[in-house]
Design goal:
The complex is a heterodimer of chains A (about 120) and B (about 110).
Chain A: E1 4-5, E2 10-14, E3 19-25, E4 32-38, E5 45-51, E6 56-59, E7 62-67, E8 72-77, E9 86-93, E10 105-106, E11 110-115
Parallel strand pairs in A: 2-11
Antiparallel strand pairs in A: 1-3, 3-8, 4-5, 4-9, 6-7, 7-8, 9-10, 9-11
Chain B: E1 4-7, E2 10-13, E3 18-25, E4 31-37, E5 44-50, E6 53-57, E7 64-70, E8 73-79, E9 87-94, E10 103-104, E11 108-112
Parallel strand pairs in B: 2-11
Antiparallel strand pairs in B: 1-3, 3-8, 4-5, 4-9, 5-6, 7-8, 9-10, 9-11
Amino acid sequence: DQQVKQNSPSLSVQEGRISILNCDYTNSMFDYFLWYKKYPAEGPTFLISISSIKDKNEDGRFTVFLNKSAKHLSLHIVPSQPGDSAVYFCAASAHDSGGSNYKLTFGKGTLLTVNP
Amino acid sequence: ETGVTQTPRHLVMGMTNKKSLKCEQHLGHNAMYWYKQSAKKPLELMFVYSLEERVENNSVPSRFSPECPNSSHLFLHLHTLQPEDSALYLCASSQGSQNTEAFFGQGTRLTVV
């Protein structure tokens, strides 16, 4: 049973437009959420994160929105650039009984293609 | 020099072979991880080491054996693997255990024949 779901395997947008990547989760204990970007033949690289005490976090062209009641988060990229073309993974973690949150649970990823 | 380095980048091994994957981090982090990425599946956490002690073993078969001799190095020893173990194996590191992002290596593409 997948606890983190990225229901769109792919997304295609025009350069300059907004890209919206979506992620849903089922575990209400998740309290920290991250987005990673992955280019072919490279490992995932951290992009942006958000704690459950916030509903928005912005870093340059990237904004993550969190809707706890809907158990939904989204990544907005605006304006989109061809170099943003990559697989984007949503990940979530929850504190364990010891107070640590090592374990990241990942979604399957969404392939974003930004067309020039 | 990248923060997290994995070797080899590609590995083909027979089911009776013994091989090891190596990971080295140069970021001064105190936690290291092994993840497995199979085709069309999410990244799966295999093992976590914090301060050189294993803190997570995610029901991984015993044919995968991790080793963390110090906070900068992590190994994954492989023996008698199955073809379904073919995947991308990713190493990651992070600082601390509270809401910190993990930094990933480039991965080892493993093919078991």
